[in-house]
Automatic annotation (TrEMBL):
Pfam families xrefs: FAD_binding_2
UniProt key word Transcription regulation: no
Cited InterPro entries: CobZ, FAD-dep_OxRdtase_2_FAD-bd, FAD-oxidoreductase_2, FAD/NAD-bd_sf, Succ_DH/fumarate_Rdtase_cat_sf
Segments traversing the membrane: none
Cofactor(s) the record lists: FAD
Coiled coil ranges: none
Protein name: Tricarballylate dehydrogenase
FAD-dependent oxidoreductase 2 FAD-binding domain sequence ranges: 6-434
Listed PANTHER family: FAD-DEPENDENT OXIDOREDUCTASE 2 FAD BINDING DOMAIN-CONTAINING PROTEIN (PTHR43400:SF7), FUMARATE REDUCTASE (PTHR43400)
NCBIfam families to which the protein is assigned, alphabetical: CobZ_N-term, PRK08274.1
Gene Ontology molecular function: any one: oxidoreductase activity
Domain of life: Bacteria
Amino acid sequence: MDSAHDVLVIGGGNAALCAAISARRAGASVKVLEAAPRFYRGGNTRHTRNMRCAHDTATDTLTGPYTEDEFWDDLKRVTQGHTDEELARFMIAKSKDMLPWISAQGVRFQPSLGGTLSLGRTNSFFLGGGRAMLNALYQTAEGLGVEVEYDAEVVALEIEDGMFLSATVKRQSGLETVRAGALVAAAGGFEANIAWLKEYWGPPAENFLIRGTPYNRGTMLRMLLDKGVQEIGDPTQCHAVAIDARAPKFDGGIITRLDCVVFGIVVNRDAERFYDEGEDFWPKRYAIWGRLVAHQPDQIAYIVFDAKSLTSFMPSLYPPISASTLEELAGKLELDRAKFCATVAGFNAAIVPGGSFDHTVLDDCRTQGLTPPKTHWARPVDTPPFYAYPVRPGITFTYLGVRVNQEARMIMTDGRPAANMFAAGEIMAGNVLGRGYAAGIGMTIGSVFGKTAGEGASRRARN
């Protein structure tokens, strides 16, 4: 079989749909190929809740302004400068237009959230979460005439001298060649490909849990790199958070994540603390804990807290492990009891009396003379019952990807922009995220570069 379209979009999440909608609104005929079944469509977008966009004033769903300069400062801090500043500033500037544009595609937002998230001013939350957002975008795309196909895995690409010619699609009925005037690759990273992760992480990757879709195996990324597209990003860098160790291997999503690090201490298998639990606010620092745990023995750690904090954060899907004494808790965690109790006692003794504990500000509740320190939100773990969550690295998406320019056009290994190939979303996130993560920025990358890619692909296909 053989079919032809102006623009072919490979992928089915936020980035892919923003590309498909913008290309269709620009007059192109568009086909979307989603490798997953319809129920699991949307990649990691299914598990998201919000996006981070610059804005000059408070809105109905945001409590105050979030300027381009502040966004840039936050991004620079979490990436430690490992970002393409030109592309990053381009994305931030374009993000100011994304909230009204996304709303115009049928997506609805809910009132701002407070609490431990600290995102009410910076991030807009989707009413109904990522699944509702996807449903709205699919409804809009299909209403505009975008052709969507599920269970459609691309197994080969025909590319000559930086120009996309066709894709070979595998389905139950056989193989089909799909031709198009332009390609938008928005098929995610390779986080669900454990064998590929092990190439860089070694045996520890076997203990990683994959928070999102099992369909992001990096097939499209590998084909593009093999066809001469320039790669970008450190293959060991990724968006990784500490999630409940009892979560499923794939697709655990948001309900297995834990936001309680700041309320206690984190110890490894040897009952030792290994990092400052109070370094910064949750949105800027929660995504460091996956990598931290990945470097611990057996890739396991335990968040330990007491009765004072039990109702202060969103719990995991699974209940915490509880005990009436620290000794009993150590036994349930299979940790050395004497060492565990000594670690907790040492932490408690190092706390400097400060003002009142307040997780919404960088308070002065800290430790002194302790390595590693806890620089904020330190209070004794001394009120029974005692609790712990076991955590493992939860990989959201990988940062190794394809290099793009401000048109979202792929760059070939010889430095030339591809003739008609564009990329958006996780498959090119490494251009902006060299390391680290700030809450909601994955959706920003997907929507900004998705819309940009769709518009560019439409112009290229119709020219």
